Amino acid sequence: MLTGDLEDLDVLIVGAGFAGMYAVHRLRGQGLRVRAYDAADDVGGTWYWNRYPGARCDIESLEYSYSFSEELQQDWEWSRRFPEQPEMLAYARHVADRFDLRRDIVFATRITSVTFDEGDGRWLVTTDRGQRVRARFCVMATGCLSVPNVPDLPGADRFAGRVLHTATWPAEDVDLAGQRVGVVGTGASGIQCIPLIAQVADHLTVFQRSANFSVQGLNVPLDPELARERKAHYGEYRERARRSFGGMLLRQNRVHALTASAEERDREFSARWGLGGFEYMAAFDDLIFDPAANDLAADYVRDKIRQIVRDPEVAATLTPTDHPIGTKRICVDTDYYDTFNRDNVTLVDVRRDPITEITETGVRAGGRVHELDILVYATGFHAMTGALLAMDVRGRGGRRLADHWAHGPRTYLGLGMSGFPNLFVVAGPGSPSVISNAFVSLEQHVDWIGDCLAYLDAHRLTTIEADPAAEDDWVADVNAAAARTLYPQANSWYLGANIPGRPRVFMPYVGGVGRYHKRCAAVAADGYTGFTLSA
Ligand code: NAP
């Protein structure tokens, strides 16, 4: 229905990545009038934007995918163990076609403000194209890694060459052949693109502020026998992932590293290194909890770096010593360390030789200018809260979300906030989110929200809102879960520590996906305890 120029929806969804896409499908399927908005001109979210060379997922394709449709999961064929960005985007597009999602998605449109109207209990939403929409419910499927971080380096706009960011890489081919390329940043994005850029560039200069732990990916073509077996029992495998710690089917060894013998440890770490990927951190059960156990796992990788990198000084610079392994998201690479054995690659330690300015011709660090044709920022994101705070979100009494979260994100179960009725967040802060398999987490959230909206309608209720006390308790639970681990010891984006001036608060819930799902289900089964429901 149109009221003047004001259109009425049941549910407005922000974002058409995998979370928003599933929200469109699921909520529309229960008879709600829904619409999603996205700044991109097609579906895919993070997989739409992150097109840099080497971009790929670090979770296995047979797990990093939707489970809501048996036909979809049976029909779709993955080509490799870890899906590359083009394949993830093709999958997103296939899902959009298959379930006819685009008819309820508005592309190339950014949401600018989201304001709760206490008069009629609805959200008033505006876009950068001047549209105004009214909705009973808002679902924020905004992604955790969607607002790029561009460092504020002196002279940045003087550079005469081309500037790129891994998170906004152009869709058309970028010709790096024969170019002098600089990459700032050695997180997962840098670690994936550096080996490929080195293969084509005339010269690559890597500006590293912190060395990161990376394990080999071994991204082999997917074994058809494995895919067949998995598909034959997909339901069981998906259920196991939902009950697991991280939403993945890792072979978690229940033995503690500190009780194992030196030989057992060595055997296990080598076997895990040989498996590739996140299996490494599942080698023992205490690695993310006990600093001494963690050191053993870290030392094994540090030894690997020394074995791979021929120049001992370069190897030392690449060796992480400032955080426990796994407390920043461990990177999964193809030939990352070996790339530094190439003659056309230079590593600059910007802790020792800080970047003092960007000049017209390159980057000045340690008193010398590194001449460049192309400068690539692989400098990450305003993670977890960035997209939510980029919109002007105002709840009851005009309270800004930015004020509610001034000291770090506060949520109840990661799903809702007190003072922001009928507004849900999908897989954001306060939930397993980035510590888990995103598909497991986003499907659980969207299903929970769908069930909740059906419950409200069935009971002739109009409003659901988190109680302040429940929110306080949940924030304490999120902090307590993090404090039981080594995660808070790293200056990671999990804590907002990558952005100067942000409050240092551990944002995701690390108490485990299985435990979290049970808690959300119990809250719903008990009539939404911790939320106030009203007619
Ligand atoms: P990131 O992990 O935040 O890494 C950013 C890098 O830029 C860090 O090395 C950081 O150094 C450096 N940096 C930032 N500001 C700088 C400055 N002013 N000067 C010098 N260096 C600076 O970001 P990301 O690599 O894009 O990855 C973010 C997350 O996205 C990953 O952890 C992962 O969850 C996800 N991701 C996943 C994949 C995958 O599936 N394989 C691939 C890419 C991204 P410090 O460490 O010192 O801050």
Automatic annotation (TrEMBL):
Q: InterPro entries of this UniProt entry?
A: FAD-binding_Monooxygenases, FAD/NAD-bd_sf, FAD/NAD-binding_dom
Task: Kindly give the Gene3D superfamilies that the UniProt entry links to this protein.
Answer: FAD/NAD(P)-binding domain (3.50.50.60)
Signal peptide (residue range): none
Query: Which keywords has UniProt assigned to this entry?
Result: FAD, Flavoprotein, Monooxygenase, NADP, Oxidoreductase
- From the Swiss-Prot or TrEMBL record, what is one GO molecular function term? cyclohexanone monooxygenase activity
Q: What class of enzyme is it?
A: oxidoreductase
Q: Which cofactor does it need?
A: FAD
Q: Which residues span the membrane?
A: none
Query: Pfam families per the record?
Result: Pyr_redox_2
Give EC number(s), comma-separated.
Answer: 1.14.13.22
Q: Taking every annotated instance into account, which residue ranges of this chain make up the domain FAD/NAD(P)-binding?
A: 10-222
- PANTHER family given for it? L-ORNITHINE N(5)-MONOOXYGENASE-RELATED
The record's family statement is: Belongs to the FAD-binding monooxygenase family.
- Official protein name in the record: Putative flavoprotein involved in K+ transport
What are the leading ranks of the lineage?
Bacteria, Bacillati, Actinomycetota, Actinomycetes, Frankiales
